[in-house]
Amino acid sequence: MQDCKARILSVRRLAQGYQVLALDAPAIAIQAQPGQFVHVRIPTLAASRLRRPFSIYDVEPETGRLFILYKVVGFGTRHLAELPEGAEIQVLGPIGRGFPLTGSGVPFLVGGGYGVAPLWFLATRLPRKGVLFVGGRTVADILEVERFQKLGWVVRVATQDGSQGVRGLVTVPLDEALAEESNAVLYACGPDGMLRAVGERAIAHGIQGWLSLDKHMVCGVGACLACVQRICREGTERLARVCIDGPVFESREIVW
Predict the structure, then answer these.
(1) What is the pTM of this model?
(2) φ, ψ for residue 119 (rounded to 5)?
């Protein structure tokens, strides 16, 4: 884990409110694994010393570039979006336990909105290609589909208003695929409701389901106990720190 200053190299704007930030952070980029995150301190937030967690979207170890994909949703991300190229931010990372990269099943990646961020990094590192299931309220929440397709992944889209793909939740195309493929492994990132639904399907089908939890964090290094999640391992329930014991957990571990 490194705590370093990272210079903003570029900003790529996607759909409404979504952006990809490229940072010069070689010490972090060379260590990062899919599913890990970074904790960012934004210099213009004089009223707050708290960092903001962001999933690692991609890395280029050879150039030292680190990428994060985020949505402008509040005070902190608004300030981050206003920073110009060349500005420096303080970045701590990589943090946490990411997705496992081994397994014999067909990988099914399930993402909601900017939940696709760690799934892209994962898709570039898994030993075999599979299917990305991506969902959102509208077409504006469906991100980076073309990049996954160019990488060789099949993409299934669901929107709640029917503006792209099938109408409904992302579990609609997922259920159809699970009915046809018995040798799948699920990897998911998104809101709790979606994660719980994906985890329930993994358990019902007797397959592994790796879920990346999204919790409010303060310190990001396991000291403050603000991001705990109840889990069960070997028949014993306990509280796990999502920041360092996760953010990725197997579906059977999580006590909702």
Answers:
(1) 0.95
(2) -70, -30
Q: Give one DSSP letter per residue of 100-148, joined into a string.
A: ----SSEEEEEEEGGGHHHHHHHHHHSSS--EEEEEESSGGG---HHHH
What beta strand segments (E) does the chain contain? 2-13, 18-24, 37-41, 52-60, 65-71, 88-95, 106-112, 131-136, 154-159, 166-167, 184-189, 209-212, 228-233, 236-241, 248-250
Q: Give the pLDDT confidence of 166-208 residue by residue, as tens digits.
A: 999 999 999 999 999 999 999 999 999 999 999 999 999 999 9
Q: Is residue 103 left, alpha or beta, with left meaning phi > 0 and alpha meaning psi from -120 to 50? A: left
Tokens standing for residue 192: 């709790």
Of the candidates 6, 39, 188, the one whose C-alpha atom is nearest the C-alpha of residue 99 is: 188
What is the rounded distance in angstroms from the CA atom of residue 76 to the CA atom of residue 201? 35
CA distances from 236 to 162, 207, 217, 231, 252 (A): 43, 22, 25, 8, 12
Contact call for residues 120 and 57 (beta carbons, < 8 A): yes
Tokens for 205, please give them.
């089908």
The pLDDT score that the predictor gives to residue 48 is 55
The conformation of residue 168, written as its DSSP 8-state character, comes to S
CA distance 68 to 57: 5
